[in-house]
Amino acid sequence: MRLVQLSRHTIAFPSPEAALREPNGLLALGGDLSPARLLMAYQRGIFPWFSPGDPILWWSPDPRAVLWPDKFHISRSMKRFHKTPPYRVTINHAFGQVIDGCAEDRNEGTWITPDIVLAYNRLHELGNAHSIEVWHDDLLVGGMYGVSQGTLFCGESMFSRRINASKTALMLFCHAFAQAGGQLVDCQVLNSHTASLGAVEIPRREYLDYLGQARQQHLPSHFWVPRELFLHA
Q1: Which residues are CB-neighbours of 83 under 8 A, at least 6 positions away?
Q2: Which helix (DSSP H) or strand (DSSP E) does residue 214 occupy?
Q3: Could you tell me if 121 and 102 are in contact, meaning their C-beta atoms sit under 8 angstroms apart?
Q4: Across 43-51, average pLDDT
Q5: How far is the C-alpha of 48 from the C-alpha of 26, rounded, in Å?
Q6: Which of 22, 144, 145, 193 has the lowest tally of Cβ within 10 angstroms?
């Protein structure tokens, strides 16, 4: 298997099965970040991830990290923390601020370049990318964003400027998502943080099967309407 160079003149991708096992399912490079190409990628279980100054790299890991929304792990400390919730959580109120926060709050640097920010803001305007915001009074202190694929949500990034802010975003999103019929949250590659919240690894083939089924199903039309989220709605 070899790395495929994408053309700017077609949005076609090679099969995810052609991805290199190391590193982490690298599949192709090049192309662009147009809405059509990004949506084609997510429909096939592929996502972009690259460092500033590098060509666009496209990935489809095997295994794939996923989180069943009804299996989000709430630790004892989080339960105590939320006995008197310090935050307010909303959906689709401030997508631009959330992706900017994800880009800025990275001590190790960021892959969320200005081109990525522009591309995902376009997806948000088209109704395909969504954000969850965590507020302390009127100050944005955390959040997450990703791309919807029917009853599957492809999580992209999260950030936290106050204790437990990003965990709160994911916790309330999983609660609302499961209640609305959401089936799976894609976490891409497992790390210690997502594993502590309940994420697990499954074979890529299994993930692609879930994705194919989820794309044929739909959440209620009001789910992505901007509103406040509550843990016990």
Answers
A1: none
A2: helix 204-214
A3: no
A4: 96
A5: 10
A6: 22
**What's the predicted TM-score (pTM) here?**
0.95
CA distance 148 to 223: 11
Q: What is the mean pLDDT of the chain?
A: 94
E strands within 77-215?
Answer: 88-91, 129-136, 139-149, 152-160, 184-188, 200-202
Q: E strands, 51-170, where?
A: 57-59, 64-67, 88-91, 129-136, 139-149, 152-160
pLDDT of residue 160: 96
C-alpha closest to that of 16 among 41, 48, 35: 41
Copy the structure tokens of residue 55. 């060509």
Helix (H), strand (E) counts: the chain: 7, 12
Angle made by CA atoms 139, 122, 63, in degrees to the nearest 5: 90
